[in-house]
Amino acid sequence: MIPSANLTRINEFLLLGFSYLQEKQLVLFPLFFCLYLLILSGNITTVTAIFLEHKLHTPMYYFLSILSISETFYTIVILPKMLLNLLSVLRTISFINCAVQMFFFAGFAVTNCLLLGVMGYDRYAAICHPLRYPILMSWRVCGQLSITCGILGFMTSLIMVNLIFSLPFCNSNKINHYFCDISPVIRLACTDSETREFIIFILGALVLVIPFFFICITYFYILKTIMKIPSIEGKKKAFSTCASHLTVVIIHYGCASFIYLRPTASYISNKDRIATVTYTIITPLLNPIVYSLRNKDVQMAIRKVLSRKFHLK
Known about the structure:
The protein is an all-alpha fold. The chain has helices at residues 25-52, 59-86, 95-128, 133-136, 139-165, 182-186, 194-227, 232-260, 269-294, 296-312; strands spanning 12-15, 92-94, 174-175. A three-stranded mixed beta sheet has the order 2-1-3. Helix 3 (95-128) runs antiparallel to helix 5 (139-165). It has a single domain (30-312), classed as Up-down Bundle (Rhopdopsin 7-helix transmembrane proteins), CATH 1.20.1070.10.
């Protein structure tokens, strides 16, 4: 550990981002900018369609709208700064702004994981206990579940950020990433951080593994119930209500587990940066696409919203 007298506090960090790609950054900017616009338009359209279409005022679509809102803010925390840095020579971010970015990024990320678990429970209640569904998933329960997801998400994020940014940073200020992610930042600490890394790893494992394990259990009972349905059409109809959720869960947890269910020491900058692009850009983009492509009710609601808009014009 470096003596406190020799510590020079770092006031800002340098985000290296995609600097290793050099001239290709000019190609990445329009690509990421278009993807960012697609994420915003896709999620906002989904939320608007659910809000305006009375047929979609059900718990399943309520949680989908909350997930879409969370995904929208999640990308707003990261992508505007990344896009600006792609065109900038000086890619700095202040110490405080780095902590704030990590707090909101981690908060929305954990909230999304918990929301996917709640959405799994909603499908379990609808298919396995249809008669009790109005009680199990009343609007009061839905509100309580969504608020709980947000509180737990940002409480977990606050603990992580406090553990990281209470460390001394006195050597390099170069973050080998395009935003203030957990592993690249904590690696810059100029003191032993193994204990804190272990705590953060355990927290990350809990918020990923517990909801995923819960989803697996709910789908085990869902599949058992579906298999008891006598008609093939009935089985297809029951499973179709779960297909979109399952697709999003596989993509979301697959990418997140690859990045965060490893010790910080195993972070490999360039490869992990590409994987993080999938998690921070592709996943939020796929959510509205998956639900709109696989769900006829959402498709019809979006068409109605668009037709009303152009008809009014």
